[in-house]
Specification:
single chain, mainly alpha, TIM Barrel, Non-ribosomal Peptide Synthetase Peptidyl Carrier Protein, Chain A, 8 helices, binds flavin mononucleotide
Length: 182
């Protein structure tokens, strides 16, 4: 979190031996209100010589580029914008390395969503796993860019049986896109 004493505190933490610092461009009082202040992260970057990771509101490739330009940070951290599209983090890294958008992700999206679901079942068990997965399944349906996204979302958040979730996730990523790619 940023505040006026953050640069001084960061330098003190570096002197104590920390190796990297992630800074969310908001104050504790702001919580998620207004926009993250990427330039304020720059004051921390100037105060230390260790790598600084900028965080807060990175939702597009353009955001990632602006965050780095405004903060001078060494990397960006992505939180909420990866919910429903975990491949977005890879897209940013891909864009950085090659300075152009990554490969089309439909198939990747399906396998990522299924792998995410299976991992939640492994960690939490079938009952709790399905319930915990619902917010992610809803986000997958919303961000899949398919015509029946809302209907899929309705179905996915009501399912209790893991097999039914798997089948419905596959149907989601196989269903017609809102805008068919040229
Ligand atoms: C579901 C969720 C859980 C989080 N848990 C933590 C946490 O345990 N510790 C922490 O420092 N920040 C936590 N955060 C804050 C994020 O690390 C991040 O700073 C914040 O979401 C802003 O980044 P974003 O705009 O990319 O989401 C959490 C955020 C979310 C959405």
């Amino acid at each position: 979190m940023v505040n006026r004493s953050m640069p001084r505190n960061s330098a003190a933490a570096e002197a104590e031996g920390i190796a990297m610092l992630t800074v969310h461009g908001r104050t504790r009082c702001q919580f998620y209100a207004s926009r993250a202040d990427w330039a304020a992260i720059g004051a921390v970057k100037k105060a230390v010589s260790i790598p600084v990771v900028a965080n807060g509101d990175c939702a597009s490739l353009a955001d990632a580029a602006s965050m780095l330009a405004q903060s001078g940070a060494d990397a960006v951290m992505i939180g909420r914008s990866a919910i429903g599209r975990p491949w977005f983090v890879g897209d940013v890294a891909h864009y950085w390395r090659r300075a152009k958008p990554g490969p089309k992700h439909r198939q990747r999206a399906q396998s990522a969503a299924l792998e995410h679901f299976e991992t939640l079942l492994e960690i939490l068990g079938p009952g709790h796993g399905v319930r915990h997965a619902r917010k992610h399944l809803a986000a997958y349906a919303e961000l899949a860019g398919v015509r029946d996204g809302a209907a899929f979302r309705q179905r996915l958040v009501r399912l209790e049986c893991p097999s039914a979730v798997r089948v419905t996730l596959c149907q989601l990523f196989d269903s017609p896109l809102l805008i068919e790619a040229a």
